[in-house]
């Protein structure tokens, strides 16, 4: 029996405004793929990302172009060669994982994990703003054990000071989203170290980060925009201390698992992150993040409305997904 695929563009309002160094957004724009076969169906969600040249229309068209191959039963492994890494492949790959689990009765977790899943402590993201506004955000979330703070401007030292003073008991990840420069990266890293920052994520633009090989790292530095798939890792040795794995960058769970395992072999720390999406996008990432050094899967916490059923969050603890949601 041929598989049937449906593709839907959806929008979920963000609670307030989400701001990083490249701009602001008030809603999460996602594309959901459903693949059905023999009375069972699997779903996957992706978030097209403009930084990587993706648009809603372009990703939708890329998924539609795979309709015949999906109907013909393309495997997840064959999909790696049939499509480039990115959001479109992610939605299809995760839908295929979910469909396989629904048809065989074997949860995805049983296929990829050697031990049972457990709840994970996720970072909670604070939007970029003026220092006083960011301090207010930090103060409101000071009970959370791990905060991820968006920075990447001319006044970052003031932002770092404001946030660390407002949430003195929280561990803090700084995410510059490529917003620092060769001229300020050393001073900013030193200031971050002085204020007890746990990790600095992607301080410099991807491909323009060679200075990281020549300077000290008083705080561990994590690659985000600089790493998409396992093939990218060798070039990052000596530049970065950790890598942020996101399903929308890797093009699905299949490649993300390869990326994670190769990164561990090379000695990188592991962060599993996300775009701003719903619980459907986070669910496979929760499986990937088991055993990770840092988890940043707070997408649904930033939304005004999530899917039903969604992941269960208790403060910053996210529970494993129910199989009705995914997997």
Describe the structure.
It is an enzyme of class 5 (isomerase). The chain crosses the membrane at residues 266-289. Belongs to the mandelate racemase/muconate lactonizing enzyme family. Pfam families: MR_MLE_C, MR_MLE_N. The protein is of the alpha/beta class and 327 residues long. It folds into 2 domains: 4-106, Enolase-like, domain 1; 112-318, Enolase-like C-terminal domain (TIM Barrel), CATH 3.20.20. 31% of the residues lie in helices and 23% in strands. The strands form 3 sheets. Strands 5-6-7-8-9-10-11-12 form an 8-stranded parallel beta sheet. Helix 6 (131-140) links the parallel strand 5 and strand 6 (146-150). Helix 6 packs parallel to helix 7 (156-166).
Mean pLDDT: 96
- Cα separation of the termini: 22 Å
**Helical content class:** 25-40%
Number of helix segments?
11
Organism: Mesorhizobium australafricanum
Domain Mandelate racemase/muconate lactonizing enzyme C-terminal: 131-222
Family: Belongs to the mandelate racemase/muconate lactonizing enzyme family.
Transmembrane segments: 266-289
Tag the structure with descriptive keywords.
327 residues; alpha/beta; Enolase-like, domain 1; TIM Barrel; 8-stranded parallel beta sheet; 3-stranded antiparallel beta sheet; 11 helices; 31% helix; Dipeptide epimerase
Summarize the structure.
It is an enzyme of class 5 (isomerase). This protein has helices at residues 56-64, 67-71, 76-82, 87-104, 108-112, 131-140, 156-166, 185-194, 247-250, 253-265, 279-288; strands at 4-20, 23-37, 40-46, 120-121, 124-126, 146-150, 171-175, 199-201, 221-223, 242-245, 269-272, 294-295, 313-314, 317-318.
């Amino acid at each position: 029996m041929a598989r049937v695929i449906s593709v839907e563009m959806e929008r979920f309002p963000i609670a307030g405004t989400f701001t990083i160094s490249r701009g602001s957004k008030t809603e999460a724009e996602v594309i959901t793929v459903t693949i059905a076969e023999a009375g069972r169906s699997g779903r996957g969600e992706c978030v097209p990302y403009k930084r990587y040249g993706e648009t809603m229309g372009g990703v939708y068209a890329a998924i539609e172009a795979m309709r015949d191959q999906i109907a013909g039963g393309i495997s997840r492994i064959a999909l790696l060669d049939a499509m480039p890494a990115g959001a479109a492949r992610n939605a299809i790959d995760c839908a295929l994982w979910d469909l396989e689990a629904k048809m065989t009765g074997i949860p995805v977790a049983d296929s990829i994990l050697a031990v049972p899943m457990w709840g994970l402590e996720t970072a909670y993201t604070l939007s970029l703003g003026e220092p006083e506004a960011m301090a207010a955000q930090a103060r409101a979330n000071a009970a959370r054990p791990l905060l991820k703070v968006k920075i990447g401007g001319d006044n970052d030292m003031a932002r770092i000071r404001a946030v660390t003073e407002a949430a003195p008991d929280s561990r803090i990840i700084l995410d510059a989203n490529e917003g620092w420069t060769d001229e300020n990266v050393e001073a900013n890293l030193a200031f971050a170290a002085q204020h007890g920052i746990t990790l600095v994520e992607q301080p410099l633009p991807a491909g323009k980060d060679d200075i990281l090989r020549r300077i000290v790292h008083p705080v561990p530095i994590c690659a985000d925009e600089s790493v998409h798939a396992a093939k990218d890792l060798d070039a990052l040795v000596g530049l970065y201390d950790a890598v942020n794995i996101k399903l929308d960058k890797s093009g699905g769970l299949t490649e993300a698992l390869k990326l994670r395992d190769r990164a561990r072999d090379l000695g990188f720390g592991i962060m599993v992150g996300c775009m701003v999406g719903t619980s459907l996008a986070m669910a496979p990432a929760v499986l990937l993040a088991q055993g990770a050094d840092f988890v940043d899967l707070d997408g649904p916490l930033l939304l005004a409305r999530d899917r039903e059923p969604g992941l269960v969050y208790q403060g910053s603890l996210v529970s494993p997904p129910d199989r009705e949601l995914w997997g």
